[in-house]
Structure formats: C-alpha cells, structure tokens
Amino acid sequence: MKRFLRILFLAPVGILIVVILIGFLSGKQESTKKLPRPSIGEPARDFTYPSVDGNEISLSDFYGDKVVVLNIWATWCPSCKEELPTLQKMYDILKGEDLEVLAVSIDTLGEKVVLPFLEKYGLNFPVLLDTSGSIQLLYGTTGVPETFIIDKKGQIAFVEIGASDWTKPEKLALLRSLMEEPDIKEQK
C-alpha cells in the first residue's frame, strides 16, 4: 500500500519534470530554427563572424555606404570552386568603389581548410569563418553557394541560388547600379 501511495505521489512529479524538460528542450530547438530565405526588399539579417585575418566583421558595418555581396560557400563544394574565381575577378574590377564582398565559409574545420583554399585559388576578398553553419539558419539557405546582394540601405536587392559567373556584364551592371545609389550613412 505504501508503495502504491508513493507511486501515486511521484507520478505527477515525474510528469511535471518531463513537461518542464520538453519545454526547455523545445526552447533550445527554437533558437536554432532555420529561418526562411529573405526575399528581395526585406532587410538583410545582421551577423558577426571572425575573418581569416582575425577581425570580427558585422554585416551592418557596411550599411549606408557599401553594397555587400554576401556569398555563403564551402571548400568542399565543387560549384564554389567554379564560382569563387569569378567573384574574385568581379572584386578586382569593382574594388575601391562602394562595394564589399563578404564570403562566409561554413567549413567546420575553419582556417585549417580555408586558408590553403584561399591561397590555392588566389582569393583575397574578405572571408569570414562560420564553423557552426549558423549563417545557413539565418539566411535559410538550402546549399552552397548562395549569394545575397545587399544594397546600401541594408536590404536584399538580389538573390542567386547556386553558382554564377560574377564577371558577366549583367551582374556587373546590377552591382554598379546599386553602387550608384547615394550613400545614406547617418551624419553624427
């Protein structure tokens, strides 16, 4: 009888603990939920990652005076190996103007694999390291490469899913037209 009363008392306590744990774990999963890919005209989602040269870089650092080419890639991706050299050529053509490239590597091994890759392909635009892959959740990507062009207002202006040749005249024209928009950096 005592055992039955003990079970009768402990069962609700056990159920309560299980419910609390499920709620807690559900909250954890919610924070790592994949967001839908942003659409053209939507605000870009800010982030901060370390660069291969050790600096912390935030997307919002460029709002107001730069068009940003945000490229999400990985060293193991065959399409990225085709696309990144064209991104470098585009960067060389437009470098020094109102444009910045932020190439976010999702390689879990970080610098160990990214630095040799950059050297092999002669890439010198800013490369950020996201070893956790959180950029994929933030931008709702389905693979690599994916590229988001962000205008000076910090809004998505163009989305490219898959590899592209960034030296094509229509791509350069798109970037130049966005770069021609007036700077909107707040005066302090």
Brief summary:
With 188 residues, the chain is an alpha/beta fold. 40% of the residues lie in helices and 18% in strands.
What does this structure look like?
There is one protein chain. Helix content is 40%, strand content 18%. Residues 26-31 have low confidence and may be disordered. The chain is an alpha/beta fold. The chain has helices at residues 2-31, 78-94, 111-121, 134-139, 169-179; strands spanning 48-50, 56-58, 67-73, 99-105, 127-129, 146-150, 156-161. The longest helix is centred in the N-terminal third of the chain and has 30 residues, at 2-31. The chain contains five helices and seven strands. The strands form two sheets. The chain has a five-stranded mixed beta sheet. A two-stranded antiparallel ribbon has the order 1-2. The protein has two domains: 1-33; 48-179, Glutaredoxin (3-Layer(aba) Sandwich). The protein starts with a helix and ends in a 9-residue tail after the last helix.
Essential attributes:
single chain, 188 residues, alpha/beta, Glutaredoxin, 2 domains, 5-stranded mixed β-sheet, two-stranded antiparallel ribbon, 5 helices, 7 strands, 40% helix, 18% strand
Topology at a glance:
Blueprint: H1 2-31, E1 48-50, E2 56-58, E3 67-73, H2 78-94, E4 99-105, H3 111-121, E5 127-129, H4 134-139, E6 146-150, E7 156-161, H5 169-179
Parallel strand pairs: 3-4, 4-5
Antiparallel strand pairs: 1-2, 3-6, 6-7
